[in-house]
Amino acid sequence: MTVRIDATDRKILAELQRDAGQSLDEIARQVGSSKTPVWNRIRKLREAGVIGQQTVVLDAEALGFEACFFVLIRTSEHEADWQQAFLKALKDRPEVQEAHRLAGDIDYILKVPVQNARAYDKFYQALISEVRVHNVTALLSMEEIKSTTMLPLNA
Amino acid sequence: MTVRIDATDRKILAELQRDAGQSLDEIARQVGSSKTPVWNRIRKLREAGVIGQQTVVLDAEALGFEACFFVLIRTSEHEADWQQAFLKALKDRPEVQEAHRLAGDIDYILKVPVQNARAYDKFYQALISEVRVHNVTALLSMEEIKSTTMLPLNA
DNA sequence: TATGAAAGTTTTAAATA
DNA sequence: TATTTAAAACTTTCATA
User: Fold this and answer.
1) pTM listed for this prediction
2) Does residue B36 reach within 7 angstroms of strand C, measured from its CB?
3) What is the 8-class DSSP label of residue B62?
4) For A79, A96, B91, B125, which has the most beta carbons within 10 A of its beta carbon?
């Protein structure tokens, strides 16, 4: 499932990240190649899973998502069963945009954009009724200073 | 700059989030309308800024981004000048994918995907040499359990 | 809202370096 | 083996009913 990724592939990926809507011709021009070779590279990168979903960035506030919480979770349970149930709970909840298992003191971090504090509380109550967690700290975002999905492929 | 967003708009936005590569015809079929009205709605939503950048999701690990840190920052400085400098530092660093100013005890949270721990340390050293921060805690992700850019527009 | 036509784009295939 | 050319199928965009 791996693919060798050269400098031209990286340039193509950087362009696609920046604007997935531009035409093959434009991308080819940007990376100093032409349509067909670029198209073949994109196809290979897609097949290898390096290029995944194509999507649009939406204005969360305009759509009523006015609050965003980062949730730090500590648990005392470390059995496979519990972890299974916890993972399933997170994956099933559409308000959880990100979930990471961490090294160290804090076990998990979540990013949860919601309409308002009440919606967060509903989420929180639902979560703790499904799985036991030892300690939960919610950090409320006051201001999104920066938000990008781009990886720095040229840095 | 605001626009009224009705149920059909939401369905269109949900489809675009899910797959921005599909054709107008497909989207029209999914939302139970036809090409022209869907096209006009998309144009309006784009002009209003509700629909932003069109992008692709890349496989970070395949591209060598094998570590991801969440960084919790406390500061004792709360003057405008300091904040200005701190914001600029974050915006200028391409490895910072997310930065939020928080309510409460912890002042900022960052998400920083990097190649490895050494790359994180370089970022950290560069940051603290640019701006004074009181206390920094780095949480290292061991496993990305869930990661999506999608807002739950139907929930 | 629907139809349709012009312009542009993607995709495949064949030809060439 | 990789690139260029060429052409068919499909999409977007926009004017008009």
Assistant:
1) 0.94
2) yes
3) G
4) A96
